[in-house]
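Entry type: protein chain
Record version: 2
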Amino acid sequence: MQVRPVLAKNCWACHRQSAMGGLRLDSREAILKGGKSGPALVEGKADQSLLIQAITHQHDKLKMPPSGKLPEADVAVLRTWIDKGAFWPPSDKPATETSKEYTITPEQRAFWSFQPVPKPAPDATIDRFISQRLNKEGLKPVARADKRTLIRRASLDLIGLPPTTSEVDAFQADQSPDAFAKVIDRLLASTHYGERWGRYWLDVARYSDDKFNSTMEELHPNAWRYRNWVIDAFNSDLPYDKFVKAQLAGDKIDQRAGLGFYALSPEMQDDRVDATSRGFLGLTVACATCHDHKFDPIPTKDFYSLQGVFSSTKFDEYSLAPKEVVDNWTAKKKQVDELEKVNDRFYEKQREMLAEILASQTAKYLLAAAKLEPADGLDTQTLERMAQYLAKGKWDHPWLKLPVTRESAMEFQRQIVAINEEKKRIDEKNLITLGVDPDRGRIAGATLETLEHRKYMLWRDFFERSTKDSAGFFKTDEGVFHYNKVGLERWLEGAWKTYIKDQKAELARLKKGLPEKYPHCR
């Protein structure tokens, strides 16, 4: 059956147990019942089915999956399936039966990896087990290594570096019974030992010096403290139980640097759940983000119970400098932050005002871009943007019609101005809803309003500050009428231009006087 793999790969993450939009796609009954938008398919009529309209992005509102259209081959599979009556194996359970409470079975609990590690017998050396398996396979050990080979192997294994000539010579000259033991003791005492073996744990911990910003280099201040703590833990032979506790609750046992395990990770709680389970439990629980795990006994309920622990925590900072140093830096940083906020508000107000002015001239730009009227007095860059937008020929809203006429251009302008005003009213209302009431405090359980989908798509095309390109990176100034800080400055004149010039100079002065941040753990 080809249909199930297509649905499983592209749809079930959101439309199975999660039932987003009220829709499940894991049984015939659920698909025919549909969700908030109605039945997902019409038997024998693929083109009339919401499912096909959504996955081909031909529906006005529904465009699934969010990542983009399905490959034509997958669409063809679903089309053919629906046209032939949407057959579904009768043995499959209906959607209502799959929502039962997940239960971990005795067989799952008895799985070998969940059992306590048995205490080995006194004579259970590793050589004994190796010898037993060699005998079983009819194999013999390789010849005894010479001393030069032996020290090279030990050195590379323990510190990741070859032995020096003098170290090889000293080992070959040492004829005492404990000569090799002394080599091992020296290598274990080397700082390189922790560097070599700590690296493996740093891979598990997702250690990185930067913050995973895909558009710019953004370093974690003092990230090296966690790296050095791991290295020192190996070199000091820190017991494993304390090694684990320090990374889960280092603030409780005076091992704060160990909390870098979480503090240096991406600020996503599901990543922390996954890293904890992989690193400390040897389990992959990320699958349970969307559904009960298919292999490991991890229900979705348990995943989110654990995620709740991380959601209730917050970042903090532990200073490693005297109080007066911290206070001095904090006061100067506050001045920088406050002035940056003032400047940001200025740019935001100018951006909104410029966008409204340009919106009131939509018809002029549209007609000039369509070569129906001259471009006299119009901004060249905005006109180029409008021409590029018009050249797309197809949009996620129904209000721009081709070919452009003077009447349609004026109607499109009225629509843009009206939608922008509606968006502002909704945003202002939502801010009030989310605000603080002087008598009751913060309002709980607030219901927010949203702009109707097609209107939002038009608003986004002209006023949104950024969208993502095909590679997933943010592109700035995507909206036809949106300009960021750099783009705005060419529009500023007179007192406005003088004001922001002075503000930027003052900000530069404050930043120059800001010392390097004091040492700290996060």
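Comment: Strands lie at 318-319, 436-437, 441-442, 466-468, 474-476, 520-521.
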